[in-house]
Amino acid sequence: MKNLFRILIVDDDEISNYLTSATLRYVYEDAEIRTVFNGMQAMEYFLKNPERIPEVIFLDINMPIMNGFEFLDWYENSAFKGSTKICMLSTSVSMEDRERAGKYDDVVGYIEKPLKYESINTFIENL
């Protein structure tokens, strides 16, 4: 089986997920793109699929059950830390949110929604 580039989208907004997936598929035609709707589901994905850890996560901040920062707190203290590059993908333009996200080791980008082709290129260059 071909080893695919794996991407996980963590966002509770279905329309945003559709647009993000479509944009990512345009750039990464052969990527394996999965979507979950909150941080708890992302955490469960990691725990249930340790052999399929994504190379990149696009993570929303404001979600029910477990928000993006709560997921990051879990991730930072898990055995998975260092295995994935994380890009915050949020409607938040708050400098406080940007600064907080930047304090996590594996957060390497912060993009305001909606995800655009140009934003992906900038993010990839930073990887």
Tell me what you see in this structure:
The protein has 127 residues and is α/β, with parallel strands linked by helices. The chain has a domain at 16-54 and 67-87. Helix content is 40%, strand content 20%. It is built from five helices and five strands, in the order βαβαβαβαβα. The chain has helices at residues 14-27, 39-48, 68-76, 95-102, 117-126; strands at 6-10, 32-36, 56-59, 85-90, 107-112. A five-stranded parallel sheet has the order 2-1-3-4-5, with helices on both faces. β4, α4 and β5 form a beta-alpha-beta unit. The protein is globular. The mean pLDDT is 91.
Outline the low-pLDDT stretches: none
Major sheet description:
5 strands, parallel
Helix content: 40-55%
Tally of separate helices: 5
